[in-house]
Amino acid sequence: MDCLFCKMIEREIPTDIVYEDEHVLAFNDINPQAPTHVLIIPKKHIATLNDIEPADLATVGRLQHTAAHLAKENGFAEDGYRVVMNCNELGGQTVYHIHMHLLGGRAFTWPAG
């Protein structure tokens, strides 16, 4: 498989890891859009949100739990933060391995910007 994130999980590509457990890997985004911008990925390859199966629900929930944990650890949980998941080309997905963006440390407006 030629998946960038799978290569990061396998340590084939250097990654600035901020959190890891048996199901999830989190690392700093190489093009941050906020003072804290972390990507949180499942270690299981799931290409898009449309590909999530019922057996994956606990793993996907761990992404949310990890985001909340990292927001608290980084000191902005109470002030607020943004989590984003993109799906397919028109949704802005560029790497086809589901991932959650955790953005914090600044105020956000709607629409995203």
From TrEMBL:
GO molecular function, one term: catalytic activity
Cited Pfam families: HIT
Protein name: Histidine triad (HIT) family protein
PROSITE patterns named among the record's database cross-references: HIT_1 (PS00892), HIT_2 (PS51084)
Chain ranges of the HIT domain: 4-113
Species for this entry: Vreelandella subglaciescola
Motif Histidine triad motif: chain residues: 97-101
Residue runs in coiled coils: none
Record: active site: H99
